[in-house]
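# nightly structure sweep
# worker-07 picked up a monomer target from the shared queue
# config: single-sequence mode, recycle default, output format = structure tokens
# input follows
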Amino acid sequence: MWLIGALTVSLLAIYFWFQKAQKDNNQLKKQFEQIMMLRQLIEFIRYHRRFCHQKLAHPNKNVEFDESVNVKTHIMKETLTALIHLADSNHKPMFRILRKEIQTLLTECHEYTLQRSQAIHGRIIRHIMYLIDDVVSSALLTSEKDHAFEHYQAAWPIILNSLDNLHRFRWTIDHYPIKSNIYQRELKIHIKMIQRRLGQIQMLSQQQPPTWPIEKLLPNFLALSFETPDEKGLKEGLKEGLYRCSFQISDTIFQYFDLILADIADELTIEAPSLTACLADHDCQK
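# output follows
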């Protein structure tokens, strides 16, 4: 009799363990779905920023947003609604604030200066990055993946610092006098710092590095002509080339961020879609 009772207790214990494991796994899948949606949202914002850059950098040209921008804007709004629906009660307010910020951006972007457009888009991207950080940290702590959490904590500040260097690179483009001897030197320092930081990410990650290596960033920058940019046309051409260089830097940073997300997906045994499609060859950069 006691044997039947012990067997019943054991079966119940296994059943409840299985139920808890299934529940935890479903929660992890839900959290990683949020992470992927937030990561895709960053791509939408970057895509929108480049079109805004084209329009604001060439105010005398008849630059119209093509149909793909309207489609992506619609998808972005649907993604925000889905994120708010999926979010737990702790994160819902932050997602609602994000939706309000993006709605304001879409409404007022035509009134921005080039510098303000870069700053507002960058601030929203940083907001999304911190939401990703919250969800990733929660998923790793809940699943008790201590090694993966330490790995992520080592990589996360390097990505943020790289984005800070990118911001300083773009700030230097417009706020330093082009004729100054330190103009090129200041920009070069930021690129070298980003290369060093991304090299650390490459060493940390177990994923295959992207096909666009970080080693190309500095040669592409040095290929630009800084010689006697006295005429207005030469100044504008140099700045446009520098902004294209900043697009390449941005692409590379997020490619390396995706390596870290892929490491986490492997650790949690979750299949994550690839988000490393580069935007460098898109029409908005031409």
